[in-house]
From TrEMBL:
<feature type="modified residue" description="N6-(pyridoxal phosphate)lysine">
    <location>
        <position position="227"/>
    </location>
</feature>
<comment type="pathway">
    <text>One-carbon metabolism; tetrahydrofolate interconversion.</text>
</comment>
<dbReference type="InterPro" id="IPR049943">
    <property type="entry name" value="Ser_HO-MeTrfase-like"/>
</dbReference>
<dbReference type="InterPro" id="IPR015422">
    <property type="entry name" value="PyrdxlP-dep_Trfase_small"/>
</dbReference>
<feature type="site" description="Plays an important role in substrate specificity">
    <location>
        <position position="226"/>
    </location>
</feature>
<feature type="binding site">
    <location>
        <position position="119"/>
    </location>
    <ligand>
        <name>(6S)-5,6,7,8-tetrahydrofolate</name>
    </ligand>
</feature>
<dbReference type="Pfam" id="PF00464">
    <property type="entry name" value="SHMT"/>
</dbReference>
<protein>
    <recommendedName>
        <fullName>Serine hydroxymethyltransferase</fullName>
        <ecNumber>2.1.2.1</ecNumber>
    </recommendedName>
</protein>
<keyword id="KW-0663">Pyridoxal phosphate</keyword>
<feature type="binding site">
    <location>
        <position position="242"/>
    </location>
    <ligand>
        <name>(6S)-5,6,7,8-tetrahydrofolate</name>
    </ligand>
</feature>
<comment type="subunit">
    <text>Homodimer.</text>
</comment>
<dbReference type="InterPro" id="IPR019798">
    <property type="entry name" value="Ser_HO-MeTrfase_PLP_BS"/>
</dbReference>
<dbReference type="InterPro" id="IPR015424">
    <property type="entry name" value="PyrdxlP-dep_Trfase"/>
</dbReference>
<keyword id="KW-0554">One-carbon metabolism</keyword>
<keyword id="KW-0963">Cytoplasm</keyword>
<comment type="similarity">
    <text>Belongs to the SHMT family.</text>
</comment>
<keyword id="KW-0808">Transferase</keyword>
Length: 413
């Protein structure tokens, strides 16, 4: 058993971290944006690198003593360039939101127009939603999805012609279908707009060739590193355009961020190494296969899925008779953790919603197979068909099942 400083110095906090470790091991994590990161990533993030200030970029820093962190950031950049098959990467964004902020700051002036997907259809807050700074400093215009829940590219084109945005954003938080980046670029070119891809959710599939690549179609692309990529919590920006890369670098530091989180950048480098291994392709394939197992299982049980299914790692269930909030809570009582999610045209508020979003990435990282996902689909249906009822029986089953599939081979807390 390792000697924990936290346990000795701060038993109260240690106890809470341990509680979270227990929670993660006794529940099934199906939030589409979460994952279990690699042990190597956690080691890098828990290292002395957190002590170092390194404003600036490798070999152009505003602080002394950066010779080692320069090598670490350069390693992260080189690995990311190989992974995304691109010419320029900035690995400093503290999060996906920061990455998006830097792109807007680099390419837009205040009040410029952003065209993006509306929130209830699967867009993200940082895609110029009114409640986000991005929707207050810039003018947000939005496209949605058609009655079937799919992007209607003709409609996007028509809206773009009317709005004449400076930037079009494609890439989403809750869109279960493939994105046609080529078609989006044609639309962007027709109105002289930049095309920004936000692959926060699908990056792990993209780098494995399991989703079309945003390059060469997008001018610039943002991502998170912690969702399907299984890296540390953070963001990045990449592009093949040198002028845009230079602008983004300035927009990120000193434009919108201060010192980079060197321990997280080291974590990103460690994660990218895993993503570059041949096994990563098998993982990404398995994530998609497992999502299909969930789709089939839930459709067989008579549930309605937005867009009728999924092409990626996530699916969105739509309910009529109860809310997403009620579904999230009932599944939570059964040990299955999901998030309530708005659905296209949702009449309920974002805190109530008419749907839930499910993803297969985390449980695939935990080693579950297709048979396990079929079992989970049955359990989800059992809970939702008895939404107001007692879930303690299912909870016991899920707890036992979860403990048979530990998150990590040894305790890490
Ligand atoms: C499409 C998309 N972009 C950006 C983000 C923001 O990422 P973060 O939470 O790291 O700021 C998210 C996160 O949910 C997302 O889904």
């Amino acid at each position: 058993m390792p000697n924990y400083f936290l346990e000795q110095n701060d038993p109260e906090l240690f106890g809470l971290v341990k509680d979270e470790w227990v929670r993660q091991n006794t529940h099934l994590e199906m939030i589409a944006s979460e994952n279990y990161t690699f042990e190597s990533v956690m080691e890098a993030m828990g290292s002395v690198l957190t002590n170092k200030y390194a404003e600036g970029y490798p070999s152009k820093r505003y602080y002394g003593g950066c010779e080692v962190v320069d090598k670490i950031e350069s390693l992260a950049i080189e690995r990311a360039k190989k992974l995304f098959n691109c010419a320029f990467v900035n690995v400093q964004p503290h999060s996906g939101s920061q990455a998006n902020m830097a792109i807007y700051h680099a390419l837009l002036k205040p009040h410029d127009k952003i065209l993006s997907m509306e929130l209830s259809s699967g867009g993200h807050l940082t895609h110029a939603s009114k409640v986000s700074m991005t929707g207050q400093h810039f003018q947000g215009f939005h496209y949605g999805v058609n009655a079937k829940g799919w992007i209607d590219y003709e409609e996007v084109h028509e809206i773009a012609q009317i709005v004449r945005p400076k930037i079009i954003v494609c890439g989403y938080s809750a869109y279960p279908r493939e994105i046609d980046f080529k078609r989006f670029r044609q639309i962007a070119d027709s109105v002289g707009a930049y095309l920004m891809g936000d692959i926060a959710h699908i990056a792990g599939l993209v780098v494995a060739g399991e989703h079309p690549h945003p390059l060469p179609h997008c001018h610039v692309i943002s991502s998170t590193t912690h969702k399907t990529l299984r890296g540390p919590r953070g963001g990045l920006v990449f592009t093949n355009d040198e002028e845009i890369a230079t602008k983004v670098n300035k927009a990120l530091f000193p434009g919108t961020q201060g010192g980079p989180l060197m321990h997280v950048i080291a974590g990103k480098a460690a994660g990218f190494l895993e993503n570059l291994k041949p096994e990563w392709r098998n993982y990404a394939k398995a994530v998609k296969t497992h999502t299909q197992v969930l789709v089939q299982g839930l459709l067989e049980q008579g549930f309605h899925l937005v867009s009728g299914g999924s092409d990626n790692h996530l699916l969105v269930m739509r309910f009529e008779d109860f809310s997403g909030k009620e579904a999230e809570e009932a599944l939570g009582r059964a040990g299955i953790i999901v998030n309530k999610n708005t659905v296209p045209g949702d009449m309920r508020s974002p805190l109530i919603t008419s749907g839930i979003r499910l993803g297969a990435a985390a449980l695939t990282s935990r080693g579950l197979d297709s048979k396990d996902f079929a079992f989970i689909a049955v359990k989800i249906a059992q809970v939702l068909n008895n939404i107001k009822g007692d879930q303690s029986g299912v909870y016991k089953e899920i707890e036992a099942f979860s403990q048979g599939h530990p998150t990590y081979t040894q305790p890490i807390f």
